[in-house]
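The records we work with from here on pair a chain with its fold. These numbers are not coordinates but entries in a learned vocabulary of local backbone shapes. To see the layout at work, look at the sequence and tokens printed below:
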Amino acid sequence: MLKLLVRKLRAAWPAVKVTIRGDSGFCRWRTMRWCDSHGIGYVLGLARNPALQRAARDEIERAERQFRRAGRPQRIFGSFPYAAGSWDRARRVVVKAEHNARGANPRFVVANVPGDPQELYEEVYCHRGEMENRIKEQQLGLFADRTSCHRFLANQFRLLLSSAAYVLVQALRRTALVGTELARAQVGTIRLKLFKVAARVVVTVRRVMFHLSSSYPYQAVFREVFERLASDPGRRPASSG
């Protein structure tokens, strides 16, 4: 999947700089080796182990000393070369040595991009949390977690439909919902307030009419979004056919 995405991105923007980030579940040496050889940056979580804790002993102990003196949570950042037994070579590891009332809580990140350890951890790695919120939004709001079929292809197709629905909702949020009270609403809220609207359907020879309730509380937003989409075809979320 990473190879496919990089190929597509570079086909559209040949000079684009690509950096991936992810939690420790994505930290695999084959992935890192491929990124190194193809000019791809990465900032990946690294599961804690005794070897990492020994390498970061200075930062961990310093955070503890400062906590005992100040009585407030402390965070010390540093970096060092490290290679797990399965890796092909050593790589730079960033440590966040945190100590609070519950004790030591060190965290580790492996990166091949330059930068200050604290900046890499806080400004690059931790911002993946917002991306995870979008994944959770798709799972909860568009049923991407309904992969209970015993067949892989069926589950994959369900996920594909969920992803397509998310793309359409995101396009609507990015265009027609700008400036409205739903501009920053999550998918579940948009579905509830804008899509799941009760109506009476009347079918005649010439037309199909939808009679909406006059007491619908979001009719002003609904009308504004409809008018935007109807008056400007460029705003309409494109479909793949």
User: Anything to note?
Assistant: Strands lie at 19-22, 41-46, 74-82, 91-100, 103-104, 107-111, 199-203, 208-212. The two ends are 23 Å apart (CA to CA). The first helix runs from residue 2 to 12. The chain has two domains: 2-126, 133-235.
